[in-house]
Amino acid sequence: MSSTGRNQNRAVGAAIRQLVAAFLVANGHHVTAKPVPRRISDSFETALDPDIEGIPGIHMEVSARLRPRLSETLDGAVRAAKINGDAIPVAVLHRPERDVAESYAICTLADMSRLIHAVQASTSPRSS
User: Fold this and answer.
1) pTM, whole model, 2 decimals?
2) Residue 8 has what pLDDT?
């Protein structure tokens, strides 16, 4: 692939990350998209950072591939989440030619169970 092709892919990836972050912000979440590194050395420093930052305990990786590689993307999120100490890895798969709200957010069943427990704990009535 030419360097022009790689730069276009980086630009598309950055644009999709911005769209995902904008969608989450519009829905009341305080998040930011990981910035595009200006230099190669910068990319090494941020390689394990989540693509969407600001949700404690959740490591979110965004894939902008035309043909997403589900296992590869989720496995990468799982590895980075373990290294960063995040509890829940999530892979966001953008669906080309669809609204960003129709992207898939995917996690393992075990992680989904943890999310359900967290939601139930935060919404259960507190006894006095």
Assistant:
1) 0.82
2) 60
